[in-house]
Design brief:
Layout lengths: L1 H24 L1 E3 L3 E5 L9 H13 L4 E4 L4 E8 L2 E9 L3 E10 L7 E3 H19 L2
Antiparallel strand pairs: 1-7, 2-6, 3-4, 4-5, 5-6
Helix pairs in contact: 2-3
């Protein structure tokens, strides 16, 4: 009976370690977009044009994009129980998307759930597409 108890204890400990390690592996460094070049065929391009492209790109993916001053916006994405909030800065030459806040994405010390980075990469691509359509 003692042997069975030890085996069961060892299995429980092993399972706990797998869960803990799995949660840690799901975290990756936060992906930010820094000074991505604005590429468009429209010339001249205004800051308003870039802002509209950012909104269209974000809204098409389910992001809520709100103005936060000249050349600045706040993007919020709600998916199931998860929320990601980003700070978007832009002008006619470049734009940046930086982590601002999150809920249920295990953010800690510059690391976050790996799904977040995919959402930011998709947002970046969508903005690029909208800029090309100007």
């Amino acid at each position: 009976m003692k042997y069975a108890h030890r085996v069961l204890s060892a299995l429980c400990l092993g399972a706990s370690l797998l869960v803990i390690c799995g949660a840690a592996l799901a975290q990756v460094p936060v992906y930010d977009v820094t000074d991505a070049p604005v590429k468009s065929n429209k010339d001249p391009l205004t800051r308003e044009d870039v802002g509209k492209a950012i909104v269209r790109g974000g809204v098409g993916l389910g992001w809520k994009i709100e103005p936060a001053g000249p050349g600045a916006m706040i993007g919020t994405l709600h998916l199931r129980t998860h929320t990601a909030v980003v700070d978007i800065r832009y002008d006619t030459k470049s734009y940046s998307i930086k982590y601002k806040d999150s809920q249920n994405l295990n953010y800690a010390a510059g690391k976050i759930h790996k799904a977040y980075n995919g959402w930011i990469q998709n947002l970046d691509k969508a903005i690029g597409v909208q800029l090309q359509l100007l």
